[in-house]
Amino acid sequence: MRRVAFEKEPPRTAHAIVPPHIFAHMATLSDAHFPGLAERGRESLVFCSELTTERLSLRGVTPLRAIGSEGRRRTIYDAEHGFFLPGRPVRNEEDGPSADLAVNEAFDALGATYDYFFEVHGRDSIDARGLTLDATVHYRRSFNNAFWNGRQMVFGDGDGEIFNRFTSSLDIIGHELTHGVTQYEAGLDYQGQSGALNEHMSDVFGSLVKQHAHRQTTKRADWLIGAGIWAKGIHGKALRSMKAPGTAYDDPRVGRDPQPAHMSGYVETDEDNGGVHINSGIPNHAFYLAAVGFGGSAWVKAGKVWYLALTQSLHRDADFMVAASATVDAAGRQFGTKGASVVRSAWKQVGIEVQSASPRKAKPREQTTAQVKGAAQRANSRGPERRTRRAS
Amino acid sequence: MRIRVVQSGGLAGLRREHELDTDALPEEARQSLAKLVQGVAFFGLAPARVSKLPDMIQYRVRIEEGDRAHEVTFDDGISDTSLLELVERVAELAKARR
Q: In B, which residues are within 8 Å of A199 by CB distance?
């Protein structure tokens, strides 16, 4: 359980009674008299989401639903090159297109991401309760990054020398929103292997959002994250390749893509929260191999399997082995022994072996879920395709 | 004063380094940097302030001045934006000198 930075650990109910929007507001504060407040607000937000996840996973309990979840609700803000978030609201669901390209790109990509999660997985927004999707564009000056800050997405314009604007890539926006989904579901700790899995899930669903929007098969998809994001002159096709990790770019100004495609290339480092953007190449490649193994549209089988693992099995401290077991297990439940075999083979090809369960045993599922806490029970209680949007 | 900034992480996961010797800078730039370093009380800062929020760029900043040296690691998620202004300024000045 996440420890919140209070001097004494408060009772859990004390957290549960404070509405998350209070923490969301705290997270935006920048008052010099309360230097730690924003950080504590963000921590508490994450903690709230973990409680929500725990509640959702309780067998037989119907989660409370927020009133008024009526599909896509988006708000785009403009930071006007400053540090303060969210900034000035510039477009919401009722407004027509803006004169600002970045605003429209962010708005449309949030819509495509919402549609992917709702149409394919029956999920109503990142919290499964119709949360408004907020994004800020024009954050800071020439800012070479995009991120999820615990409550919203934030996009820089890029400096034009290394990066173009980050709103130009649909899979990057899908990637950032998926960090929100992960926060509300598995809550994967952003450090080491669990952090690399957090990154991996964002790459998987970022890519699937793009493939779904363009109705691409596994063969037609480019399996790239951030194609076109490099500025003119940088030698690279994208930030990462799920099909061939380690080959996305190679340029003297930015170095070479450091991602391994196999456990034999696993990188130990103190930087980047323990190489979360590096070692995610290993599970990324496993997902690609599983998708190719299933064939057709990647979101139909491989995407479903990974979504089930993310929302029903994985916990904040999961490592690669746990993720492999959880996805093999989910594939077995959804698509039988053939499905489990496709996913098991994909992980084996990246150097992670999940023991196969014997079909003659009384409880074959237990053998692959030994390290995955309560996965089977949760699967029984929630159902794979639970529609969470109210009928309108 | 010598300032070294090592960036890692961010959505792109890029590692970048910027190094500056402020003695080699024009007077105005040198003074503005000294003011920023003083303003954040750099030599009294805790060594690590990392939010662990996804895709934040991490900065490891080392400053040497006379016989003292201090290193601080933080990321884009910190509430104190003056530290972010400091790394932006160092990157701009280092780039201009290349």
A: 54
Catalytic residue numbers of A read 176, 277
pLDDT per position as a tens digit, B6-58: 999 999 999 999 999 999 999 999 999 999 999 999 999 999 888 889 999 99
d(CA A331, CA A329): 5
Q: Which chain B residues contact residue A36 at CB under 8 A?
A: 79
Q: Give A185-213 pLDDT, tens digit per residue.
A: 999 999 999 999 999 999 999 999 999 99
Whether chain A has a CB inside 8 Å of the CB on B4: the answer is no
CA distance A123 to A390: 11
Q: Which residues contact A240 (CB under 8 A, 6 or more apart)?
A: A203, A224, A225, A226, A248, A257, A259, A277, A280, A281, A284, B13
Cβ–Cβ < 8 Å for A207, A239: no
What letters, b where the CB count within 10 A reaches 16 and e where it falls short, cover B74-88?
bbbbbbbbebbebbb
Which tokens go with A259? 């991602």
- Given a contact cutoff of 8 angstroms between Cβ atoms, the answer to whether A170 and A222 are in contact is no
DSSP per residue, A272-326 = HHHHHHHHTHHHHHHHHHHHHHH-S-TTTTHHHHHHHIIIII--TT--HHHHHHH
- Sheet (strand A146-148) strand order: A88-92, A74-78, A133-137, A153-155, A146-148
Q: What is the pLDDT of residues A227-278, one digit of tens each?
A: 999 999 999 999 999 999 999 999 999 999 999 999 999 999 988 999 999 9
Tell me which chain A residue has its CA closest to the CA of residue B40.
A32
Q: What's the distance, CA A123 to chain centroid? A: 13
ipTM of the complex, rounded to two decimals: 0.86
B9 → closest Cβ in A182, A255, A272: A272
Beta bridge partners of A167: none
DSSP alpha helices (H): ranges in chain B? Answer: 27-39, 81-97
- Contact of A206 with A287, CB cutoff 8 Å: no
User: How close does chain B come to A165, measured CA to CA in Å?
Assistant: 13
Contact state of B79 with A83 under an 8 Å Cβ cutoff: no
Amino acid at A295: G
* Short-list A292, A283, A152, CA closest to A219: A292
What pLDDT digit, counting tens, does each position of B33-45 carry? 999 999 999 999 9
Predicted TM-score of the model (pTM): 0.79
Distance in angstroms (rounded) separating the CA atoms of residues A31 and A158: 28
Phi-psi region for residue A66, left (φ > 0), alpha (ψ -120 to 50) or beta?
beta
DSSP A154: E
Question: Cα(A214)–Cα(B8) distance, rounded to whole angstroms?
Answer: 32
